[in-house]
Each structure stands twice: as C-alpha cells, then as structure tokens.
C-alpha cells in the first residue's frame, strides 16, 4: 500500500506519524520504503540519526524525492516494497500533489485548538481536485494528533472535522505525549522505548491498525 502523510500545515506531526508507521510496519516483517518528499528533510534527518543509534539497523529504506516526478518514481518503486510511506511538507507542494496521485491512502493529522483546523478549506479543495482526476478514489483518513488527554477538550476540533465531507475523521486520536518527542530524539519509534509509554503505543497502534485494515 502507498500512503502519503500530509496536510497544509507544519508541525501537526506528519513526520512523527510517518516514521512511527514505517517502523511499526517494518517490525511486522514488511519491507517498507520511507519517502522523504519534504525539502526540510526531517524524515531523512531522523533516519540518519536512527542509523547511528541502531548501528545501521534502521529496518527500512529511505529515499528523498521531490517535485512532480515523485509520482512516476513512486510508481516505479511500488513493486519493490510491501508498503511505501511518503512524508510531505506542510504546504500544497508539487511533491504532495504528485504523491497523492500515486497513493492509495492519505493520512492527515490535525492538531486541535490551533489554526490548522482553519486551513481545512485548502485541504478540501486540494482533495477535490485530486479526487476528481484519479481513476480510483484516494482513501482519506484524518485524525487528531497532539490531542488533549481529556477527550472533551478535543470536541470543537472534532466537530469541525466531522462536518467536512471527504475528510473521513477517524475517532482514534493520538494524545500529546512526551514519548513521541523523546523517542524521536533517540532515533526510535514509541514502540521501541523502554519503559514503554503504554498509552502512546496503544493509541498509535489502534490508529495504524485501523488505517491498514479498513478500506474506506
Ligand atoms: N502526539 C504527539 N505528542 C507529543 N509531541 C508530538 C506528537 N506528535 C508530534 N509531536 C512533536 O511535535 C513536533 C512536530 O512534529 P513533526 O512530526 O515534526 O511535525 P510535521 O512533520 O507535521 O512538521 C515534534 O517536536 C514532534 O516530536
Ligand atoms: Mg515533517
């Protein structure tokens, strides 16, 4: 499956989701390619650091791709891997559009109580355009990341997202938890931390399982 993690805003946790999902899939024995399609190169920096901290045992392959050629290149790479995860920058770039044409699924993290919720109309018009020109519909999964631990505090964001047809809000939020940042600082996913933050791993696993197993 080819999955793009994107959106029109920085800092929502795209790279965090992309790297944790990549490592989670690889830990199950899948051959995974992580595509860094963001000029800021965070997924590449993470992977370089992970290569050092794991003695070259990152467990997946990383490539950097940019611009409109992302589509053709990803399509060429598809048969070589079980899954391809594409991490994009937080803008409506040629790379993100090209990635979406080559993808089966689009993962859009939103952080609640911040202005990115209000960039929704841009995401919706991007989606409209992409869906209208694809042979088969792109599967869209949006979800809250960096959510508040108290579920009730996420309700404003949730209701705004639920109103937007086509975004398919998945009600499996990932709460703002230090474990995500501390794992990243060690070149690890939350699944590899000891002691494990059970809440972080449970939330991430629940979301990832849903995305990989549910055709919407
Ligand atoms: N669920 C989370 N809980 C706590 N911190 C998070 C979470 N998701 C992401 N972060 C942190 O937020 C910052 C931005 O995340 P990042 O994945 O780089 O966002 P993006 O790729 O969308 O710009 C990073 O410091 C990251 O560790
Ligand atoms: Mg990023």
Automatic annotation (TrEMBL):
Domain of life: Bacteria
InterPro entries assigned to the protein according to its UniProt record, in alphabetical order: CobQ/CobB/MinD/ParA_Nub-bd_dom (IPR002586), DNA_Partitioning_ATPase (IPR050678), P-loop_NTPase (IPR027417)
CobQ/CobB/MinD/ParA nucleotide binding domain mapped to chain residues: 4-190
Gene3D superfamilies: P-loop containing nucleotide triphosphate hydrolases (3.40.50.300)
Protein name (record): Chromosome partitioning protein ParA
